[in-house]
Amino acid sequence: MTATKRGIVLMNLGSPDSTRVKDVRRYLNEFLMDERVIDMPWLGRLLLVKGIIVPFRAPKSAHAYSTIWTAAGSPLMVLSKQLQEALQQQVTEPVALAMRYGAPAPWTAYDELLEKMPGLEEVVLVPLYPHYAMSSYETAVEYAKEAHVKGKYAFKLTVIPPYYDNTLYLDALAASMKPYLQQPYDHFLFSYHGVPERHIHKGDITGNHCLKVNNCCEVSSEAHKQCYRHQCLVTTKKVAALLEIPAQKYSFSFQSRLGRDEWLKPYTAQRLAELPTEGVKNLLVACPAFVSDCLETLEEIAEQGKETFMQAGGESFTMIPCLNVHPMWVKAIASWVKDNEK
Ligand SMILES: C=CC1=C(C)c2cc3[nH]c(cc4nc(cc5[nH]c(cc1n2)c(C)c5CCC(=O)O)C(CCC(=O)O)=C4C)c(C)c3C=C
Ligand SMILES: [Fe+2]
Ligand SMILES: [Fe+2]
């Protein structure tokens, strides 16, 4: 039997091309005009995004990006490329990188793989999002599928499902965090990117479970296949168990709220201001919704979040890096692609 000619695409969110306001504006326009991110009818979305959000946000975001930008580009891009290279060392299949917004687009990644491997039969898509959300995992996967159909590519596209409860992912996450638990700490905060509550209702395939049933995320339901909050809770509990963090010593919260809608609570910024008043002086923070460090971890949490916590009376704030190129994480991806061969 001959082996399937297979390639791998790692897919992340994408960053602006530079910290110039015009590049950030273009990026934000593409990002926020995505109907899975701002889920409004097209005209309302256009007016809100181009008329209100982007003109105000672009200069502020450009400044935020300028505080984390490196000589090689945005941390998210640099770290995604490093992950691509590290994975390439572990597997024989060619590995390409794609972004949901900006470059490289999925079709660029597909063409790159075809060039390296003429007669390509299968592409395994690895979304760099552990949890299912319509504004992250779903939009990336649908975009990659659309590019596959539109480009009439002959190869089969196989998508790795959300891996929030996958043992290899959880083991890698716990191992990457463990060294930071050697220092004394009062509390461990798992901060996840937030989403509007409306997105959780929309994703509820049962129509009557999410945010409707008491303790919905802990009551077994088919809805959990697409419930971002449930999946964040599972990652939190399983990692805390692996690290033997007692229940009263950890919690989870949601960051990066945009606009006036109700988003998943508690809000990270609010918790960071409250924790010192509850006796938490030494804090560990991790952001498992991101596999690569990015604006939301390096600026929003490590810079702004730290300031909020320290000003509220905190004494030490330790930000735990994302998985980035942790060897166990690279091995986890390699192993999922290998399992897929069976
Ligand atoms: C309605 C707005 C947004 C939703 C919903 C949303 C969900 C979401 N986002 C990520 C991952 C990332 N988001 C990043 C940046 C970012 N996110 C939004 C808005 C929403 N995200 C904006 C406007 C921005 C741009 C920066 C800013 O102006 O604040 C990033 C960082 C990108 C980088 O270049 O570093 C990531 C990663 C997830 C996982 C998610 C849903 C679960
Ligand atoms: Fe975001
Ligand atoms: Fe839920």
TrEMBL record:
Reactions the enzyme catalyzes: Fe-coproporphyrin III + 2 H(+) = coproporphyrin III + Fe(2+); heme b + 2 H(+) = protoporphyrin IX + Fe(2+)
Record bears the keyword Iron: yes
One Pfam family named in its UniProt record: Ferrochelatase
TM stretches of this protein: none
EC number: 4.98.1.1
InterPro entries (alphabetical): Ferrochelatase, Ferrochelatase_C, Ferrochelatase_N
Function recorded in the entry: Catalyzes the ferrous insertion into protoporphyrin IX.
CC annotations in GO: cytoplasm
Stated family: Belongs to the ferrochelatase family.
Major enzyme class: lyase
The protein's annotated pathway: Porphyrin-containing compound metabolism; protoheme biosynthesis; protoheme from protoporphyrin-IX: step 1/1
UniProt main location, coarse: cytoplasm
SUPFAM superfamilies per the UniProt record, alphabetical: Chelatase
Keywords, alphabetical: Cytoplasm, Heme biosynthesis, Iron, Lyase, Metal-binding, Porphyrin biosynthesis
UniProt record, GO biological process: heme biosynthetic process
Molecular function per GO: ferrochelatase activity; metal ion binding
Protein name as catalogued: Ferrochelatase
Subcellular localization: Cytoplasm
Residues holding Fe(2+): H193, E296
